[in-house]
Amino acid sequence: MYRHSRLVGILGCAATLAIVGCAANSGNMAPTTGSPTSAQVGATHVVHYMATRNAARTVVPNSGVLFSYFNGPVLLKPKVYYIFWGYKKYGDPDKVAKLLEAYSKVEGGSLHNNDYIQYYDIVGSKKNYPTNPNKQLGGVWFDNTNAVPENPTDAQVAQESLNGVAKFGYDNSASYVVATPHGHSSEGFGTQFCAYHSSVEYESQLVSYTNLPYMPDAGTACGANYLQAPKDESSVDEGVTIVEGHEYGESISDPNPGTGWYNFEYGEIGDICAWTDIQNISFKKKSYTMQPMYSNASESCVQEYGTK
Q1: What is the extent of the structural domain holding 252?
Q2: Sign of the Cα pseudo-torsion (264, 267, 268, 271, in order)
Q3: Distance CA 245, CA 253 (A)
Q4: Is the residue at 279 inside a domain?
Q5: Other CB atoms closer than 10 Å to residue 66's CB: what's the count?
Q6: What is the pLDDT of residues 134-155, one digit of tens each?
Q7: Is this model's pTM higher than 0.70 or not?
Q8: Residues β-bridged to residue 61
Q9: Helices 96-106 & 238-253, crossing angle to 10 degrees?
C-alpha cells in the first residue's frame, strides 16, 4: 500500500544540501531523475512543502527564470478529490469544507488555472498538454470512520489518500487532497510549512496527494487576514484558497515532485511566487484570494494566463 522510498523534510534539507541541493523556498530534495520511457511511473516519494509567510523568499526575479522538465508526468485532465478527514468529529468552525467545495466548483476554466496548460509531459516523442476543463471538482468525502491522530505523520496522510482512492476510484489526473481537521495537523504546520504535496503508489499507479491542514489554525503565518477578503470568503479563511491554489497548481505541473516541472533554485512553479502579489481573483461570479503562479512563457509570476 504505502511505499516510502524517499522522504526529505524541512529539517533534513540542510543535511542533503551538499549532496543534491534543496530549493530555497521549499522542503524537498531536488530531482535527480525522471522516467525516460513513460510519464506514468512509480512514485519516488518526495515531500514538497509550501513555506509559511515568514519563511518565503522576499525577492522574486522579474525575468530570466525557466522551469525545466524532468521526464515525469503532469495531470492532463485535472480534478481534485477532497477527503475531509474527521471534519464532522473534530469540527470545522471556520467552514473550510464549504469554502473548498465552492472554490473548486468554479476554478476550472479560469484564466488563473489556464497557466498550467503550458506545462506538458512527454511520452515517447509526443508532448501532452494539460487541459483546463470547467468541472474540476471530482468528489467530496467526509471520512469519519478513521480516527485522526493529533499530529498525523506523512505515512498516515498518504494512507488516508489511498483510502480516498478506494472510495472515489483511481484517477491518474487527480489530486487527492487530505484535509485534516481543526486541531489535528502534522508537526511543523504553521511554523515551518502551510501544506505539502507528494505522491504514493496505488496498485503500481501514481497517486498525487496533498496534505492540507486546517489553515485558520495557523493564523497569519498561512494567510489569514492577508488583505480585505472578497465577498465569497472570510478574512480568517483567506489562506485556504491561497494555499490550496498553490498546491493544486504544483500538483498539476509536478505531481510526482521533482520529476515534472522544476527549478533547482526556486523549486516548483508556486514556490517562486509564494506570498507575493496576493489578490482577490474572479472565478466566474465568485471571488477568492489567490497567489500568482509562474509562467515559463512570460518568465514571470502571473495571476492569469491567456485570454477567454
Answers
A1: 10-302
A2: negative
A3: 13
A4: yes
A5: 10
A6: 999 999 999 999 899 999 999 9
A7: yes
A8: none
A9: 50
